[in-house]
């Protein structure tokens, strides 16, 4: 059932929080029982597990025909996705499990995420990284699903929030999240970026990555990165963009530092991909200009 345009953002935000509180424990429980990982066609970089599909079904159950999500978005197509996002009605963009490879491999850089969009742009988001608080004080070990500790990050009405989680559920109320002003000298550097670009370390920027787009967002939001990059897919950027914007980060096109288009869908090509464009996510134009000078495009070997 389509959610009315008159539905307050606070109610929409509560629905997304409820989804995360159900999806994160589900993913943890399925991982604990053991998962077989396959690939989406011949692309070995696109992993898939039964948990991805289970959370996808949960997304559809929660948000129905107003949903654009990874496992079914390519069947929807760009034109339909653009029309949905342009409406005044709430449209949801979700990624059932972002970071499927670290998820299946028992690592921490993965999570579930969803955004609420209207009038062409993502307005609010919720992302849960239920295994984020990995204990690195000793060799890696398995932790029971119910004891696994993580973090939930969210944004609504222009404000950013966070909460600790245990077993995928919040163990405290949402707390305001402010942008860190410390500098680390590191920029998010996901594998899809590394396939197409190189970073000149001599300019004082160093790459850091712990998984997929959701872990990259968590690193930036919690002050571990100074900036990050995006040339991923619609469902990778949509659920993290409201958090970035609430923390005062902006999108700048590389290398010209152009502004993003007015419509979120126009960041992506017919395949709902931004692989041929690179967007810098920075505090301001001066930081973006400095980072842009450190990036070089590489020739594809194929």
Brief sketch in words of this structure:
The protein is built from ten helices and 17 strands.
Describe this structure in words.
With 302 residues, the protein is an alpha+beta fold. The protein is built from 10 helices and 17 strands. The protein has helices at 9-32, 50-63, 70-76, 78-86, 100-104, 191-194, 213-221, 234-237, 241-246, 285-292, and strands at residues 38-39, 47-48, 67-69, 91-98, 111-118, 121-129, 149-156, 159-166, 169-170, 175-176, 186-188, 197-199, 206-208, 228-230, 250-253, 279-282, 295-297. Strand 5 (111-118) and strand 6 (121-129) form a beta hairpin. The model has no long low-confidence stretch (mean pLDDT 92).
Indicate the topology.
Blueprint lengths: L8 H24 L5 E2 L7 E2 L1 H14 L3 E3 H7 L1 H9 L4 E8 L1 H5 L6 E8 L2 E9 L19 E8 L2 E8 L2 E2 L4 E2 L9 E3 L2 H4 L2 E3 L6 E3 L4 H9 L6 E3 L3 H4 L3 H6 L3 E4 L25 E4 L2 H8 L2 E3 L5
Parallel strand pairs: 3-4, 11-13
Antiparallel strand pairs: 1-2, 4-5, 5-6, 6-7, 7-8, 8-9, 8-10, 12-17, 14-16, 15-16
């Amino acid at each position: 059932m389509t959610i009315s345009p008159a539905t307050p953002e606070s109610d929409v935000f509560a629905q997304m929080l409820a989804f995360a509180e159900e999806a994160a424990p589900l993913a943890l429980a399925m991982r604990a029982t053991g998962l077989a990982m396959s690939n989406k066609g011949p692309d070995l970089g696109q992993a898939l597990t039964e948990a991805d599909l289970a959370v996808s079904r949960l997304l559809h159950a929660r948000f129905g025909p107003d949903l654009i999500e990874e496992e079914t978005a390519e069947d929807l197509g760009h034109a339909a996705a653009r029309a949905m996002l342009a409406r005044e009605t709430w449209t949801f963009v979700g990624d059932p499990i972002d970071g499927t490879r670290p998820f299946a491999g028992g690592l921490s850089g993965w999570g579930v995420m969803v955004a609420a969009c209207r009038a062409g742009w993502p307005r609010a988001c919720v992302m849960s990284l239920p295994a984020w608080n990995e204990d690195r004080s000793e060799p890696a070990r398995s932790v029971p699903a119910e004891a696994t500790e993580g973090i939930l990050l969210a944004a609504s009405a222009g404000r950013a929030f966070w909460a600790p989680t245990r077993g995928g559920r919040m163990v405290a109320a949402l707390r305001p999240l402010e942008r860190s002003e410390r500098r680390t000298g590191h920029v998010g550097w996901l594998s899809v970026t590394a396939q197409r670009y190189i970073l000149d370390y001599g300019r004082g920027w160093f790459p850091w990555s712990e998984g997929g787009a959701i872990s990259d967002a968590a690193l930036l939001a919690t002050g571990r990165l100074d900036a990050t990059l995006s040339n991923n897919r619609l469902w990778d950027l949509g659920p993290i963009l409201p958090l970035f914007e609430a923390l005062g980060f902006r999108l700048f096109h590389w290398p010209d530092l152009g502004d993003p288009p007015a419509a979120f869908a126009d960041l992506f090509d017919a395949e709902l991909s931004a692989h041929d464009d690179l967007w810098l996510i920075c505090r301001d134009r001066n930081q973006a200009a400095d980072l842009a000078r450190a990036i070089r495009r590489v020739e594809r070997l194929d």
